[in-house]
Amino acid sequence: MSVLTVAGIFLLAAGARFKGSLTNSGTLMALLVALFIGAAFDLYGLLILAVFFLTSSILGKVLDKRVESNTIEEKGNRRDARQVLANGGWPAVCAVFYLFTGDSVWLIAFLSGFAAATSDTWASEFGRLSKRCPLDLIRLKPAVKGQSGAVSVIGTLGAAAGSLIIGVSSFLFMFLSEEPFTIYTFVLISVIGFTAQLIDTIAGGTIQALYECPGCGEKTERTRHCGYRTVRIRGMSFINNDVVNHLCTASAVFITWIVYVII
To answer: Where are the transmembrane segments (predicted)?
Structure first.
Protein backbone atom coordinates (compact mmCIF):
# COMPACT_ATOMS: atom_id res chain seq x y z
CA MET A 1 0.00 0.00 0.00
CA SER A 2 1.52 3.31 -1.11
CA VAL A 3 1.98 6.43 1.00
CA LEU A 4 -0.45 8.19 -1.35
CA THR A 5 -3.10 5.56 -0.58
CA VAL A 6 -2.65 5.95 3.18
CA ALA A 7 -2.86 9.73 2.82
CA GLY A 8 -6.01 9.34 0.71
CA ILE A 9 -7.61 7.12 3.34
CA PHE A 10 -7.05 9.58 6.17
CA LEU A 11 -8.03 12.55 4.00
CA LEU A 12 -11.30 10.87 2.98
CA ALA A 13 -12.16 9.91 6.57
CA ALA A 14 -11.23 13.32 7.99
CA GLY A 15 -13.22 15.13 5.30
CA ALA A 16 -16.28 12.98 5.97
CA ARG A 17 -16.04 13.63 9.70
CA PHE A 18 -15.56 17.37 9.18
CA LYS A 19 -18.62 17.53 6.90
CA GLY A 20 -20.71 15.68 9.47
CA SER A 21 -21.26 12.58 7.33
CA LEU A 22 -19.69 10.29 9.96
CA THR A 23 -19.83 10.07 13.74
CA ASN A 24 -16.62 9.49 15.71
CA SER A 25 -17.22 5.73 15.75
CA GLY A 26 -18.14 5.81 12.07
CA THR A 27 -14.88 7.58 11.24
CA LEU A 28 -12.80 4.93 13.03
CA MET A 29 -14.68 2.10 11.31
CA ALA A 30 -14.35 3.83 7.93
CA LEU A 31 -10.58 4.06 8.48
CA LEU A 32 -10.42 0.33 9.24
CA VAL A 33 -12.53 -0.64 6.22
CA ALA A 34 -10.53 1.67 3.94
CA LEU A 35 -7.19 0.31 5.18
CA PHE A 36 -8.22 -3.26 4.31
CA ILE A 37 -9.39 -2.12 0.87
CA GLY A 38 -6.25 -0.05 0.31
CA ALA A 39 -4.03 -2.97 1.30
CA ALA A 40 -5.66 -5.18 -1.32
CA PHE A 41 -6.32 -2.76 -4.17
CA ASP A 42 -4.17 0.27 -3.35
CA LEU A 43 -5.47 3.64 -4.56
CA TYR A 44 -7.79 2.05 -7.12
CA GLY A 45 -9.86 0.39 -4.41
CA LEU A 46 -10.42 3.75 -2.76
CA LEU A 47 -11.97 4.92 -6.04
CA ILE A 48 -14.88 2.52 -5.55
CA LEU A 49 -15.20 3.37 -1.85
CA ALA A 50 -15.16 7.09 -2.67
CA VAL A 51 -17.82 6.75 -5.39
CA PHE A 52 -20.14 4.95 -2.97
CA PHE A 53 -19.55 7.20 0.00
CA LEU A 54 -19.29 10.60 -1.69
CA THR A 55 -22.30 10.16 -3.98
CA SER A 56 -24.44 8.82 -1.14
CA SER A 57 -23.40 11.59 1.25
CA ILE A 58 -23.91 14.35 -1.33
CA LEU A 59 -27.32 12.96 -2.27
CA GLY A 60 -28.34 12.85 1.38
CA LYS A 61 -27.22 16.41 2.10
CA VAL A 62 -28.77 17.88 -1.06
CA LEU A 63 -32.10 16.15 -0.44
CA ASP A 64 -32.08 17.16 3.23
CA LYS A 65 -32.33 20.77 2.00
CA ARG A 66 -35.09 20.04 -0.52
CA VAL A 67 -37.18 17.35 1.11
CA GLU A 68 -38.42 17.01 4.67
CA SER A 69 -36.64 14.16 6.42
CA ASN A 70 -38.84 11.21 7.36
CA THR A 71 -39.21 10.31 11.03
CA ILE A 72 -39.61 6.58 10.54
CA GLU A 73 -35.91 5.72 10.27
CA GLU A 74 -33.99 4.77 13.39
CA LYS A 75 -30.90 6.77 12.37
CA GLY A 76 -30.18 9.84 10.29
CA ASN A 77 -27.64 10.49 7.52
CA ARG A 78 -24.62 10.60 9.87
CA ARG A 79 -23.21 7.08 9.65
CA ASP A 80 -22.00 5.40 12.84
CA ALA A 81 -19.67 2.38 13.09
CA ARG A 82 -22.47 -0.15 12.65
CA GLN A 83 -23.75 1.54 9.50
CA VAL A 84 -20.26 1.77 8.01
CA LEU A 85 -19.64 -1.91 8.79
CA ALA A 86 -23.01 -2.92 7.32
CA ASN A 87 -22.21 -1.21 4.01
CA GLY A 88 -18.46 -1.71 3.77
CA GLY A 89 -17.70 -4.69 5.98
CA TRP A 90 -18.36 -7.46 3.47
CA PRO A 91 -16.50 -5.71 0.62
CA ALA A 92 -13.58 -5.27 3.05
CA VAL A 93 -13.66 -9.01 3.82
CA CYS A 94 -13.57 -9.71 0.07
CA ALA A 95 -10.58 -7.37 -0.23
CA VAL A 96 -8.70 -9.33 2.44
CA PHE A 97 -9.41 -12.67 0.72
CA TYR A 98 -8.29 -11.20 -2.60
CA LEU A 99 -5.10 -9.93 -0.96
CA PHE A 100 -4.16 -13.45 0.18
CA THR A 101 -5.51 -15.52 -2.73
CA GLY A 102 -5.50 -13.29 -5.80
CA ASP A 103 -8.69 -15.08 -6.91
CA SER A 104 -10.74 -12.85 -9.23
CA VAL A 105 -14.01 -14.01 -7.65
CA TRP A 106 -13.16 -11.93 -4.58
CA LEU A 107 -12.49 -8.91 -6.77
CA ILE A 108 -15.92 -9.20 -8.44
CA ALA A 109 -17.56 -9.89 -5.06
CA PHE A 110 -15.90 -6.73 -3.68
CA LEU A 111 -17.30 -4.65 -6.53
CA SER A 112 -20.73 -6.31 -6.35
CA GLY A 113 -20.90 -5.63 -2.61
CA PHE A 114 -20.44 -1.91 -3.19
CA ALA A 115 -22.89 -2.02 -6.10
CA ALA A 116 -25.47 -3.43 -3.66
CA ALA A 117 -24.69 -0.84 -0.96
CA THR A 118 -24.91 2.02 -3.46
CA SER A 119 -28.09 0.66 -5.02
CA ASP A 120 -29.76 0.37 -1.62
CA THR A 121 -28.66 3.84 -0.47
CA TRP A 122 -29.69 5.55 -3.71
CA ALA A 123 -33.07 3.79 -3.60
CA SER A 124 -33.73 5.29 -0.17
CA GLU A 125 -32.52 8.76 -1.13
CA PHE A 126 -34.33 8.99 -4.46
CA GLY A 127 -37.46 7.51 -2.89
CA ARG A 128 -37.73 10.65 -0.76
CA LEU A 129 -38.50 12.61 -3.96
CA SER A 130 -41.59 10.56 -4.76
CA LYS A 131 -44.84 12.55 -4.71
CA ARG A 132 -46.86 9.41 -3.99
CA CYS A 133 -46.86 7.03 -1.06
CA PRO A 134 -44.59 4.04 -1.71
CA LEU A 135 -45.97 0.53 -2.14
CA ASP A 136 -45.36 -2.22 0.41
CA LEU A 137 -43.73 -4.79 -1.88
CA ILE A 138 -44.85 -7.78 0.20
CA ARG A 139 -48.44 -6.77 1.02
CA LEU A 140 -49.04 -4.65 -2.10
CA LYS A 141 -50.54 -1.88 0.03
CA PRO A 142 -49.64 1.82 0.41
CA ALA A 143 -46.88 2.38 2.97
CA VAL A 144 -45.35 5.29 4.85
CA LYS A 145 -42.57 7.12 3.00
CA GLY A 146 -39.22 5.82 4.24
CA GLN A 147 -40.67 2.54 5.51
CA SER A 148 -38.42 -0.47 4.94
CA GLY A 149 -39.84 -2.93 2.44
CA ALA A 150 -41.65 -0.22 0.47
CA VAL A 151 -40.82 0.81 -3.10
CA SER A 152 -41.55 3.70 -5.45
CA VAL A 153 -40.88 4.21 -9.15
CA ILE A 154 -38.28 6.93 -8.59
CA GLY A 155 -36.68 4.94 -5.77
CA THR A 156 -36.38 1.89 -8.02
CA LEU A 157 -34.83 4.01 -10.77
CA GLY A 158 -32.41 5.37 -8.18
CA ALA A 159 -31.52 1.82 -7.15
CA ALA A 160 -30.75 0.90 -10.76
CA ALA A 161 -28.67 4.06 -11.24
CA GLY A 162 -26.71 3.41 -8.05
CA SER A 163 -25.81 -0.09 -9.14
CA LEU A 164 -24.91 1.09 -12.63
CA ILE A 165 -22.57 3.83 -11.40
CA ILE A 166 -20.53 1.22 -9.53
CA GLY A 167 -20.58 -0.90 -12.69
CA VAL A 168 -19.17 2.02 -14.67
CA SER A 169 -16.66 2.84 -11.91
CA SER A 170 -15.59 -0.81 -11.96
CA PHE A 171 -14.55 -0.39 -15.59
CA LEU A 172 -12.27 2.50 -14.59
CA PHE A 173 -11.00 0.49 -11.60
CA MET A 174 -10.15 -2.51 -13.80
CA PHE A 175 -8.57 -0.33 -16.49
CA LEU A 176 -6.29 1.49 -14.05
CA SER A 177 -5.31 -1.71 -12.22
CA GLU A 178 -4.80 -3.54 -15.56
CA GLU A 179 -7.36 -6.22 -14.73
CA PRO A 180 -9.40 -7.82 -17.56
CA PHE A 181 -12.87 -6.30 -17.90
CA THR A 182 -15.71 -7.16 -20.27
CA ILE A 183 -19.30 -6.06 -20.85
CA TYR A 184 -20.29 -9.30 -19.12
CA THR A 185 -18.43 -8.20 -15.97
CA PHE A 186 -20.15 -4.80 -16.06
CA VAL A 187 -23.59 -6.40 -16.44
CA LEU A 188 -22.83 -8.99 -13.74
CA ILE A 189 -21.79 -6.40 -11.14
CA SER A 190 -24.73 -4.10 -11.95
CA VAL A 191 -27.35 -6.87 -11.92
CA ILE A 192 -26.04 -8.46 -8.72
CA GLY A 193 -26.03 -5.06 -6.99
CA PHE A 194 -29.64 -4.38 -7.96
CA THR A 195 -30.74 -7.92 -7.06
CA ALA A 196 -29.15 -7.67 -3.61
CA GLN A 197 -31.02 -4.39 -3.08
CA LEU A 198 -34.29 -6.24 -3.83
CA ILE A 199 -33.35 -8.84 -1.22
CA ASP A 200 -32.80 -5.95 1.20
CA THR A 201 -36.29 -4.63 0.38
CA ILE A 202 -37.92 -8.02 0.94
CA ALA A 203 -36.09 -8.50 4.24
CA GLY A 204 -37.05 -4.98 5.29
CA GLY A 205 -40.70 -5.77 4.71
CA THR A 206 -40.70 -9.14 6.47
CA ILE A 207 -38.09 -9.80 9.17
CA GLN A 208 -36.98 -6.24 10.04
CA ALA A 209 -38.61 -4.85 13.18
CA LEU A 210 -41.31 -2.22 12.69
CA TYR A 211 -42.88 -0.43 15.63
CA GLU A 212 -45.93 1.71 16.30
CA CYS A 213 -46.04 4.70 18.62
CA PRO A 214 -48.85 4.38 21.21
CA GLY A 215 -48.93 8.16 21.49
CA CYS A 216 -49.48 9.25 17.88
CA GLY A 217 -50.01 5.92 16.09
CA GLU A 218 -47.13 6.55 13.68
CA LYS A 219 -45.16 3.58 12.34
CA THR A 220 -41.44 3.81 13.02
CA GLU A 221 -38.20 1.84 13.23
CA ARG A 222 -37.40 3.54 16.54
CA THR A 223 -37.95 1.93 19.92
CA ARG A 224 -38.99 5.28 21.42
CA HIS A 225 -41.24 7.93 19.87
CA CYS A 226 -43.11 10.94 21.33
CA GLY A 227 -41.66 10.01 24.72
CA TYR A 228 -43.30 6.56 24.59
CA ARG A 229 -41.78 3.12 24.23
CA THR A 230 -43.03 1.89 20.86
CA VAL A 231 -44.80 -1.43 20.30
CA ARG A 232 -43.38 -3.94 17.82
CA ILE A 233 -46.00 -4.81 15.18
CA ARG A 234 -43.83 -6.71 12.70
CA GLY A 235 -40.51 -8.47 12.32
CA MET A 236 -37.93 -9.54 14.88
CA SER A 237 -36.73 -7.18 17.60
CA PHE A 238 -33.03 -7.93 16.99
CA ILE A 239 -33.22 -7.21 13.25
CA ASN A 240 -32.89 -3.51 12.49
CA ASN A 241 -31.84 -1.64 9.35
CA ASP A 242 -28.14 -2.27 10.00
CA VAL A 243 -28.72 -6.04 10.05
CA VAL A 244 -30.74 -5.84 6.83
CA ASN A 245 -27.96 -3.80 5.19
CA HIS A 246 -25.50 -6.53 6.21
CA LEU A 247 -27.80 -9.01 4.49
CA CYS A 248 -27.84 -6.82 1.38
CA THR A 249 -24.07 -6.66 0.91
CA ALA A 250 -23.55 -10.27 2.07
CA SER A 251 -26.11 -11.51 -0.46
CA ALA A 252 -24.22 -9.71 -3.24
CA VAL A 253 -21.06 -11.59 -2.23
CA PHE A 254 -22.96 -14.89 -2.02
CA ILE A 255 -24.65 -14.41 -5.42
CA THR A 256 -21.27 -13.65 -6.99
CA TRP A 257 -19.93 -16.94 -5.67
CA ILE A 258 -22.97 -18.85 -6.96
CA VAL A 259 -22.53 -17.35 -10.44
CA TYR A 260 -18.83 -18.26 -10.50
CA VAL A 261 -19.50 -21.82 -9.31
CA ILE A 262 -22.18 -22.33 -11.98
CA ILE A 263 -20.02 -20.86 -14.73
So the answer is: 28-55, 84-100, 150-175, 181-199, 243-262
